[in-house]
Amino acid sequence: MNKLVKWGLPIVGLAVLGIGWYLGLAWAPPDREMGDVQRIMYVHVPLQWMAMLAMFLNFVMAVAHLLKSKPGWKLDSLAESAAEVGLVLGALGMVTGAIWGRPTWGVYWSWDPRLTSEAIMLVTYTGYLVLRRFVEDPDKRATWSAVVAILGAINLPIVWFSVRWWRSLHQVQSSPKTVDPQMVLPLRVSAIGLLLLTLVWLASRYRIALAERRAEVALPEALPGSGAPSVHDTPKVA
Amino acid sequence: MKPTRPRPIGLLGATLALLRKDLLIEWRTRARLNAIVFFAMATLLMFSFALGPDTRLLEKNAGGYFWLAVLFASVLSLGESFRVESENNCMDGVRLAPADPRAIYLSKALGNTLLLVALGTLLLPVMVALYGVRVATGFVDLGTVLLLGSLALSAPGTVYAAISSNARARDVLLPLLLFPLVIPALLSAAKATTLVLQGDPMNQLGSWLGLLLGFNLIYWGVGFMLFPRIIED
């Protein structure tokens, strides 16, 4: 990775996120109904956006892996990274949502369609990552987990549209269209900052995943005495 | 006499042949159906022990308990459906047959569905006796719910059973993958069953059955398309 990108992008991302949070905490007005509690939106909403983005990336990579013609590990590695990053972001989003829910709704958790579908999504991707750990053969792991990712991704539009389909406790998505103009700027800046950090995170996780694949695929040849020709003789690492 | 080439076999023919094979194996031992029926009955009993002998509570939630019992039993049954193929590398033999690999999916998923429908049919009288429920809107509705619910558990369940039967820790993996995915199906099947058992004054049964039907269409379609990739070597 380019040095400028490797060091520059995280710094810029942190700076933008810092500015966004400063604007959100100090510059934007408090909400009329919720007061300062509402300011968690500048953390919670970007987290959920990025989680959805990462999960969607996982889905696209899974489809691409199943359709690809030439061998390689890039798509599978990126799918793994996206699921892991998305799972952490989604879990953080859920925790921040619960912290906000206690003063606003009076409870940390309610069995609202949005919360329930989000919880299902997180468990689904946990299952996906567990499956990856339980399959040794990298080829099979890539194909099977891609299938599981596609089956799990069917839930993603349900999570996204749940607040529109079932009008219940959770309000409709906070987006530049639904919040006050003065809150739009901090929300946008925070989201861009988090997007940059998510990209940095994805990139470094992707490099680790790719290195793991290389080590796995190289291993049978590296072992002494395994002279028998195997499927691994053709270098697959792209 | 000229050697005759075997006739090419279509998707439907291959599916029926494989389904017949699986049902024959099942019929000769009857081990799987016996096991899951008694397991599900024990689960129904456990609910009444865990909750105390409150008949009204049991009757009110009977639909949910019924489908939880079916779901737990289905995990055992789904895992077993591929275990017969892993002995003596039978899966390789099936794969080598000149037939569409999607036929394997259809036959396994249909076989699992049939087994779950049989399980539900045997379980209902037990539930009537244990929980004191009655069937309010008729047995046609009940049969429809049972069929759609069993189809909905079997479609993703067969895909995941094929995956987890070859992975390490398969007994943990299958429920971990399957349970979150089938929540919409479980929810609608349980609601629909409750409506069938307690009456449907607001006419909601149709929409829950519609949700189940949609779930089935999505997951049978996706499973049918993706299954060949799972069993390829």
Determine the number of helices of chain A (DSSP H or I, runs of at least 4 residues).
7
Distance between the termini of chain A: 16 Å
Q: Helix count of chain B?
A: 10
Give unreliable regions of chain B as ranges: none
Largest interface pair: A-B, 24 and 26 residues
* Strand composition percent of chain B: under 5%
- Report mean pLDDT of chain A, rounded to a whole number: 85
Mean pLDDT of chain B: 88
The largest β sheet of chain A comes out as: none
Oligomerization status of the protein chains? heterodimer
Q: Could you describe the largest sheet of chain B, including whether it forms a barrel?
A: none
Give the low-confidence spans of chain A: 228-234
- Helix-strand sequence of chain A: HHHHHHH
In what range is the share of β-strand residues of chain A? Answer: under 5%
Distance between the termini of chain B: 38 Å
Percentage of helical residues of chain B? over 70%
Task: Give a description of the structure.
The complex is a heterodimer of chains A (238) and B (233). Chain A is mainly α. Chain A is built from seven helices and no strands. Chain A has helices spanning 3-27, 41-67, 74-105, 113-134, 138-153, 155-165, 181-222. The model of chain B has no long low-confidence stretch (mean pLDDT 88). Classes of the chains: A mainly alpha (238), B mainly alpha (233). The interface between A and B is medium-sized, with 24 and 26 residues.
List keywords for this structure.
heterodimer; A: mainly alpha; globular; B: 233 residues; mainly alpha; 10 helices
Brief summary of the model shown:
By secondary structure, chain A is an all-alpha fold. Chain A is built from seven helices and no strands.
